[in-house]
Amino acid sequence: MTFTISTLHLICLFVALVAALSLLLGIAYRGRWSIASPLRLAVLQRRQRRDRKRRKEHIAALRKTTEAVNSAKRQSQRKSVLLTFVAQLQKSYISGDNPLQLSDQLLQFVLDFTESKFGFVGEVVPTDAGLPHLRVDSIINMAWSSETRLLRESQMKKDFDSDSLNNLFGAAIHRREFITSNSPATDSRLGELPPGHPPLSSFLGLPLISGELVVGMIGIANRSRGYDDTLIDELRPLLTTVAQLIVAMKNERSRLATEERLWDTLDELVEQRSRVQEYAAELEVKNHELEESRRRAEASNLAKSEFLANMSHEIRTPMTAMLGFADVLLEDGDIQKAPKSRIDVIRTIQRNGIHLLGLINDILDVSKIEAGKLAVEQVQCRPAAIIKEVLSLMQVRAEQSQVELKLRYETETPQEILSDPTRLRQILMNLIGNAIKFTEEGSVTLAVRFIESPEWPMLEFDVIDTGIGMTLEHQQNLFQPFSQADSSMSRRFGGSGLGLAISLRLAGLLGGDVSLVQSTPGTGSTFRFRVGVGSLESPAMVHPQDACDESNGSVVSTAKANAPNCLQGCRILVAEDGPDNQRLIRYFLEKAGAAVTMVENGQLAIDAALEALRQNEPFHVILTDIQMPVVDGYEATARLRAAGYTGRIVALTAHAMAGERAKCLEAGCDDFASKPIQRVHLISQIESHYHAAHLASGDLAKRT
């Protein structure tokens, strides 16, 4: 048999030996000095007292050592118990035990280990907003009364969101630290406890942390000795393991959920595959039918586009002759000698021709906008110059209606903006033209102001009239195509009802809008047009008085274009198949001083241009119609460019479809002019190209 002698046994044996020796020595001394003198007796007593003191010190040291040994033994045993449970918990998880059973086992162990009476174990699940959400997995059975039983049942089925965690339970989650409270009743962190919750004498909140995240929490309460850091240190290995297990379970749940979704998807795919196979033949038939429908639709759209383009050409070409020759008659030097009735007839032709042209343009614009084929430019332009031109054109109509046309600048305005001057002009003319049309007496005022904004600065135009106004009922469909306030207005004032609808959509393309500010029957209306000024940085601003002076001044371009002999010395080749337009264009150009060569198709234009080049007398400008017999303008231009011709070519077309300008430029043209011909604009264009041709050839001095 083997005996094991521990350190404690050795210490006890040593102390016993010392005590025995001391006793023997005392007896010996007493026997030896029994007849001693009193002095010897005093010495003996002093030694005995010293020996007793030493024995007490030895016994105290022995007791302290014994307690330390026992404490270390208990700590070792508790650590062993905890680590054994940790290993068992890991093994149970690996074996696939129910997570809720593991949670119950964990809670019971912690309660036993810490000598606590109450507790719960929960998992923190973040919400979509990233806030903590505690799901209770296990809670101690508190079914001692109906209230506590209901509390336990409710908490086992309930999650705690961040709002309900403003108490001792939630402090551990929010602060990510251990929460110890050995006097909860006076603790400001206690918060509100659920009805039926037992009183708390002490509480310990243990957050389960993985990395930077709180993944769960263990809460225990009512330990008779309270809670301290020593107990927390003992629990740390368990807390770390449980946090890791929670993360592992989360990952496993996520994996299983993903796998389940994949299987569901696979089942759906298998099911859908059979349906797809069933639909495959039908789909092929449908695709064939759709392809046929698409071809027919494209052919129909192409036919419509070609028809619209041809109709535009067929209408605009005679309109060019009508309006052009009306201008010629009115500008003839002898017109003042003509009878007033003849002048009235000519002006009637001119007025109705312009009205008809406006209707045609409106219809084409609506068609292009609805088809998404109307594009706007973004170029630098001067608002004051555009306003000047619009007011100059509207002044004649205002005088005919005996309406005063006014202009008012209310703020400084940018000298230049980035916009589409053509569309800007069109919107202003629509709004002012409408105001004049519906004002029988009084005035029409254009008020202009600049709206500063760091995001989107804008120019704002108010068109204010003293006309007939509108009722609320009449305002409902104001911006709908082909709509006027009522049918009686259409019969009384005419018009297609397209102007406001077009203006609204054009304003949207320009980064602005058109709206009705106010309208009162019998008093008048105010329309507001806003347009973005673009991304110009620190534009120069014009004072209101200077802007008014510029806008009220004469139209410089008109005076310059009307100047006699402005095209003196300019050789122009005109390719135009319409006899009426031939005479009109020749009249305009020759009156401006140009030498005109006229041909009726593209082939003759090619021959004439190349022959003049060989004779060293090239044309300064070629003005070519697009739609001509034999060879059209596109092909004629392309063939001239292919032959190395570098002279200026200006396309003249009655087509008004989207992309016409780009198509002309792509064919090799330098510029584009549309029919009906605007004499002032056409002569200005040709004069500009005439100057450019001179500068390119270096013979500007030849011009006389």
Automatic annotation (TrEMBL):
Sites of 4-aspartylphosphate modification: D625
Output the Gene3D superfamilies linked to this UniProt entry: 1.10.287.130, 3.30.450.40, 3.40.50.2300, Histidine kinase-like ATPase, C-terminal domain
MF terms from GO for this chain are: phosphorelay sensor kinase activity
Q: Transmembrane region positions? A: none
Question: Which ranges carry the Histidine kinase domain?
Answer: 310-535
Question: What is one Pfam family matched by this protein?
Answer: HisKA
- Catalysed reactions, as listed in the record: ATP + protein L-histidine = ADP + protein N-phospho-L-histidine
UniProt feature coiled coil, ranges: 266-300
CDD domains, A to Z:
HATPase_EvgS-ArcB-TorS-like (cd16922), HisKA (cd00082), REC_hyHK_CKI1_RcsC-like (cd17546)
For the Response regulatory domain, which residue ranges apply? Answer: 571-690
Which keywords does this Swiss-Prot/TrEMBL entry list? Coiled coil, Kinase, Phosphoprotein, Transferase, Two-component regulatory system
| Superkingdom, natural source | Bacteria
**EC numbers on record:** 2.7.13.3
Q: List, alphabetically, the PANTHER family matched.
A: HYBRID SIGNAL TRANSDUCTION HISTIDINE KINASE J (PTHR45339:SF1)
Q: What is this protein called?
A: histidine kinase
